[in-house]
Amino acid sequence: MAYEKEKEIAIAAVTGAALLCQEVRRQMVPEAMAKQDRSPVTVADFGAQAVVCKTLRELFPNDPIVAEEDAAELKTAAMAKPLQQVSQYVQAIIPEATPETVTRWIDYGNGSVGPRYWTLDPIDGTKGFLRNDQYAVALALVEAGEIKVGVLACPALTIGDTTGILFIAVRGAGAVMQPLSGGSAQSIQVAASIDWAHFRFVESVESGHGNQEQQSAIAQAAGITADSLRMDSQAKYGAVAAGEAVLYLRLPSPKSPDYREKIWDHAAGVIVVEEAGGRVTDMTGRPLDFSQSAKLVNNRGVVVSNGEIHDKVLAALQ
Ligand SMILES: Nc1ncnc2c1ncn2[C@@H]1O[C@H](COP(=O)(O)OS(=O)(=O)O)[C@@H](OP(=O)(O)O)[C@H]1O
Ligand SMILES: [Mg+2]
Ligand SMILES: [Mg+2]
Ligand SMILES: [Mg+2]
Fold first, then answer.
1. Which residues of the chain have a pLDDT value below 50?
2. What does the angle CA 175 – CA 180 – CA 182 come to, to the nearest 5 degrees?
3. What is the pLDDT of residue 29?
4. Neighbours of ion ligand 4 (CB under 5 A)
5. Which of 46, 111, 112, 228 has its CA 20 to 30 A from that of 139?
6. What is the DSSP string of 213-278?
7. Is residue 301 packed enough to be buried (19+ CB in 10 Å), middle (13-18) or exposed (0-12)?
8. Distance, CA of 15 to CA of 21 (rounded, Å)
9. Which residues bind Mg(2+) (predicted)?
10. Which atom number of ligand 1 is nearest to the Cα of residue 203?
11. How far is the CA of 119 from the centre of ligand 1 (A)?
């Protein structure tokens, strides 16, 4: 099958990173360090990025990686202690890790968008991770602007009687989910609109990451009467792909009208939903454009659905 090697390496890398995140949560109450944009980052974000970038670079040395974090701050003297912690967590997954190699591996993620690249969010939903709620490790391969492979680990997500879910999709080959702790893969499909128990929508926990008032109004216009499920991270894409909800709305926040969505906050989730039979566009109906830069400069807002209700949602947005 096409992209077999990419898929296997991506699964190994993301699983290692998710284990690291779970280990951090078990051993400590992670502290948030503030980035320049004042958003939080933790030792687990850095550790997860080191694990994934090191694995990818070894197997695909020519592929750029566009990842959320970088090690510039972490290399400063003031950060010696957190760097030591990052290095120890990474060592549990990759024994040869040292503070020096770890910062180098993290900076493999400073690549640029090009004809073929990987994009990584080492922890998507850092605020969720800090709150002991949902978070995800999200990795995707993009070629000529088209997402080809996506692997999304959601360690805190429960579906059926499994907690800790790994979503995997390859373009044209469908989407599956499997227990993060190992076990067999099961093919997934979005829910049909007649499935009333799942005829509901998901949105962010953080009100500043969307426009909850408008999101409720649009969901209602599409016939959804149930309250929203609020969850952090791309676990929302997983919920739509696995048929737990029929719609995920992320409309521009009135507090940050000029915000542009980042590619790593969407790429893995988009292919998982599309391969499960769903549809993803921006709020004007355009496909998300992953060919430009780390930001989705040609898109505003994101609409993710089971496909069936997509046009109705877009019409309500006009
Ligand atoms: N203003 C604004 N608008 C839209 N999106 C924003 C904004 N600010 C931040 N972010 C990005 O949101 C990412 C996580 O958002 P989620 O909505 O998935 O999770 S959460 O419910 O907010 O925790 C989060 O990803 P992580 O940084 O990886 O956690 C951010 O990249
Ligand atoms: Mg962040
Ligand atoms: Mg993110
Ligand atoms: Mg992140």
1. none
2. 100
3. 81
4. 68, 121, 123-124
5. 228
6. HHHHHHHHHTT--SPPEE--TTHHHHHHHTTS-SEEEEPPPTTSTT---BGGGTHHHHHHHHHTT-
7. buried
8. 10
9. 68, 121, 123-124, 265
10. 17
11. 16
Evaluate whether 247 touches 304 at the Cβ level (below 8 Å): yes
Write out the two tokens for 35: 């980035």
Exposure string (b/e) for 142-159, b if CB count within 10 Å is 16 or more? bbeeebbbbbbbbbbbeb
Residue 20 is predicted with a pLDDT of 98
* Ligand 1 neighbourhood includes 124 CB (under 6 angstroms): yes
User: What is the C-alpha to C-alpha distance for residues 103 and 87, in angstroms, rounded to an integer?
Assistant: 9
Q: Identify the pLDDT of residue 284.
A: 98
Q: Is the Cα dihedral 76, 80, 84, 86 positive or negative?
A: negative
Direct distance between the N- and C-terminal alpha carbons of the chain, in angstroms, rounded to an integer = 41
Rounded to two decimals, the pTM is 0.98
Q: Is 112 in the pocket of ligand 1 (CB under 6 A)?
A: no
Q: H-helix or E-strand containing 51? A: helix 43-59
Residue 145 carries which side chain, given as an amino acid letter?
G
Cβ–ligand 1 distance for 204 under 6 Å, the answer: yes
